[in-house]
Structures are given as structure tokens and as C-alpha cells.
Design brief:
alpha+beta; 8 helices; 4 strands; globular
Length: 214
């Protein structure tokens, strides 16, 4: 089927973000679960994503990789799900702002901080995020302004992507435990689509563990 969504993932990966997004979209999709050591690096998948990484989505003959790009793509491909402001909506700028702030400064600074690779203060101007502290403060500002979601009352794909960063940051202690982060993560994780997505991926993990132990 030309309109089929094929989702390449591993349940212990950032593919969990895209699984959640797909559940929010509410359209049927086919999941291809890849193994890190074998199928993810096999020629068949490298032809789809030469990076040999997941997630990836193939839809209408086009491959989309990178979680933020996939979330933005799916929101626009299925506008009936109402997961993005319209193109002529001024909030579209805010939507892009926080989506790609999380994909850029947040991802980079959290990773650098976790690995002990933050630049010295005198070199902070050389990195896009400036400093870890600046990035965290800006992220806190994003999640506590305006309403329950980043765009106020409208839940969007930006909440899926930014919210995943915040929820993981609270779970793995890679972001400070701030009340705004904790409240935002709690709202997000209680969404029915988020619950379904977790249940699907957790079941896949359990199945893989059972196979390994048999």
C-alpha cells in the first residue's frame, strides 16, 4: 500500500518517541523491530538509513529519520490528528521553536553534560547551547508558560518530542528535578496514546527477554 506507514524501531531506543507519536496520530502502521547487533546494520536496513540507526519511518515512498523530523512530518502528513498549528497560525513559529530547541540545544547539552564533555565557561560561546544551565532554564520557561502544553491548550507533536526529552531527563536524572518538569512529564505520561505506546514497547522488551532466557 502506497500510503502504508512502516516504522523501523527497537523498543529500547528513541523509537519510543516515534511510537508515541504514531499512537497520537491514530493511523495504522506496520512495525519492523530491528536488533542493534544484526538487522540494524544489515544491508537491507542500511539502504533505508545509512546511519544504521533507528527510528525511521517510510511513508509514500519517502524515508524520514531523526525523531523531531519524524514527529513534524507525521503531524503535517495527517492534519486530521490536529497535532500541529496550521501553516498560517502565528503559533507555528512557537511550535518550531521549541521542537527544534529540544532537538538541538537540549539534546546536545544534556548529552555533553552526561558525558562530562561540557566546554569550559570561556569557550561556551562556541557551542550552540551556550551552557547547560542556560539550556535547562530556557526549557523550564517553555514548559511552564501559557498552559498545560507548549502551545497552551493545544497538544502538539512538539509536546511529544520535547516532552519525551523532559520525561527521560527526570527518569534518568539527566535534567534537574524541577517542579515544572515533573508536572509536565506527569501530564504527558498520562495521555492514553503515551500509555498505549509504553505498553507496546514494554511488551516487546519482555518478549525479547523471554526469548533470550529460553
Amino acid at each position: 500500500m502506497a500510503d502504508e506507514i512502516v516504522f523501523y524501531t527497537n523498543p529500547m531506543s528513541r523509537g519510543r518517541i516515534v511510537r508515541w507519536m504514531l499512537e497520537e496520530v491514530g493511523r495504522p502502521y506496520r512495525t519492523e523491530v530491528l536488533d542493534y547487533a544484526t538487522t540494524m546494520k544489515a544491508p537491507a536496513y542500511l539502504a533505508i538509513n545509512p546511519m544504521g540507526k533507528v527510528p525511521a519511518v517510510v511513508h509514500r515512498g519517502v524515508t524520514v529519520t531523526e525523531c523531531a523530523a519524524i514527529c513534524a512530518y507525521l503531524a503535517d502528513a495527517f492534519p486530521e490528528a490536529d497535532l500541529a498549528p496550521a501553516l498560517d497560525d502565528p503559533r507555528r513559529g512557537l511550535y518550531y521553536r521549541w521542537m527544534f530547541f529540544a532537538a538541538g540545544p537540549v539534546e546536545a547539552s544534556v548529552t555533553a553534560n552526561s558525558l562530562g564533555l561540557l566546554p569550559p565557561a570561556e569557550k561556551s560561546a562556541m557551542v550552540g547551547y551556550g551552557s547547560f544551565e542556560q539550556t535547562v532554564d530556557a526549557l523550564e520557561h517553555a514548559v511552564e508558560q501559557g498552559g498545560p502544553w507548549l502551545l497552551g491548550d493545544q497538544f502538539t507533536a512538539a509536546d511529544v518530542y520535547v516532552g519525551s526529552q523532559v520525561a527521560w531527563g527526570q527518569m534518568f536524572k539527566s535534567l534537574p528535578e524541577r517542579p515544572a518538569f515533573q508536572a509536565y512529564a506527569a501530564r504527558l505520561m498520562s495521555r492514553p496514546a503515551a500509555v498505549r505506546a509504553r505498553e507496546i514497547d514494554d511488551a516487546l522488551i519482555a518478549e525479547a527477554k523471554a526469548r533470550a532466557e529460553s
